[in-house]
Design goal:
The structure holds two protein chains of two kinds. Chain A is of the alpha+beta class. Chain A contains five helices and six strands. Chain A has a domain of 125 residues: 2-Layer Sandwich (Alpha-Beta Plaits), CATH 3.30.70.3270. Chain A is elongated, with a radius of gyration of 27 Å. By secondary structure, chain B is an alpha+beta fold. Chain B folds into two domains: 54 residues, no CATH class; 315 residues, Cytochrome-c3 Hydrogenase, chain B (Orthogonal Bundle). In chain B, the strands form three sheets. Chain B has a three-stranded antiparallel sheet with strand order 1-2-3. Chain B has a three-stranded antiparallel sheet with strand order 6-7-8. A two-stranded antiparallel ribbon of chain B has the order 4-5. The chains are: A alpha+beta, B alpha+beta.
Chain lengths: 187, 380
Amino acid sequence: MSTLVGYVNNITETVSTIFEGMAITFSHFARRPMTIQYPDRIEKPVQETLPLRYRGILEVDLDICTGCLACERVCPITCITIGIEMNKETKQRAFSHFDIDICKCMYCGLCAEICPTGSIRHSQEFEGACYNPAGLVRHFAKEPVPLYKPKKGGETDPKLAMKAEVGLKYLDEFATPEGKAAGAEEG
Amino acid sequence: MSEAPHNGGEAFHTEDMTISMGPQHPSTHGVLRFIVKTDGEVMSEAIPDVGYLHRSIEKIGEKVTWHGYVPYTDRADYLAAMFTNQAFCMAAEKLGGIEVARRGEFCRVIACELNRIASHLISVGTFGQDIGAVTPFLHALRERETINNFMEEICGARLTYNYIRIGGVGYDILPETCARVREFLDHFEPIVDEYNRLLSYNKIFVERLANIAAITREDAFQYNIVGPNLRACGLKWDIRRDIPYSVYPELEFDIPVGTGEKGTLGDCYDRYIVRIREMEESCKILRQCLKMLPKGPAIAKVARKFKPPAGEVYVRVEAPRGDMGFYVVSDGSEYPYRVRIRTGSFTAMSLIDKISRGLMVADLIALIASLDVDAPEIDR
């Protein structure tokens, strides 16, 4: 008799717990869907909704790059290669190449933090698929670009000043470990 | 194929069959292979064959600088990268005698506990999926997605964070993020109850796990089982409480242990339910940390060319997969002399052969899922 009672109890318990689970599943019909149709049916590109600290594909603004090679040295995977040559005629040092191998990059953010002018930074771009691995090596100096020399007392060229400001703003917002931006939370 | 020691009667000549489960099997959680000897459905032996995901992370440690090694530690256990970050940074700080900024310590604990919830969500979600319940997996991943978004706000990456640095943390946690985490906790705690109703107390699920592959306390000691798997055997051992580090001594939290509520002590169900309870405890810790978050810098001043004095240290942290240890030797140069990582999943592998004898093949899946082994952590 007891085995029969146990048998029936088992069945009732199984059925009741299954229906409890099903009730939760069905309650999701009334909730907001969590999935989105990517990339066709989204309101605005995902790149625009990403937080500022998002570490996407690296980009370099060579106009404000001083050529200090700090990023090349700090990169643990040596995916950044920089070449600087002296132009014999103008006696000016210029980048002969500035390549970043996106294949190798592990998006650790060490280079962007160490940059004094904020010229190398992580963009919000993450879609980097291409058919050829060579296409993933980003060449930033297609022709020789002269090095940027920060002027004392602020930048005078308005175009460069704007770029320098963007870089410094990025540095501020990307890495604020000193606690400048954030105060303590009130309980 | 080898001849079985026992012949099933004179008329029948039976042989054990050796089959290979994995390395591409979806329920082995990564590339992990088991050499299984079966007699029909019953296994007589299951030998784990590790090494398919070896990336020589320990060796790389000897070739990169102290700061540069932190992003590599992410890859040692990518489901819980915060903990590997923290363990290595703690080792470096201990060697260099650096005191971590107080705000940095709290930021670390917040990030780590968020990461623990995310890791346990993956664990319990895939557990259900391995057993055959696909819906709970999606529920778990939905919550994990929110945590990933927080991580993106905090440190800019979703999986390999490189957030915890030597001396503190790389980026400060902003007040907006704190508010959003608090909102998430209010939303998440009822979700755990819902998840329990959906999966944990489901009769079929319980029947599949109760009394399966129970680990005794002696076995757990002898094979060095750590973390939630050890606590499921009824032993209250948590590095956060017993060998305190960071600011955990200031926080109040319980240590959930297995009680054998549905079957024997230390069975698969206990290992499962301990993880569910740990997520609730993590929520408690997070609430306290968000309240206590002090002002000040989040990182201490550390030289760019960090050169700790010669010496060796061993530090342990309580990762989601148990006691994680970093043994680091310094010879006073810019590079670590030797880095050795000790992880919980690797020791759990050694026990599988012993407790899988006499189990059904389908129960081996439950056993692997309940141990929450993670292939990158086994091989490093």
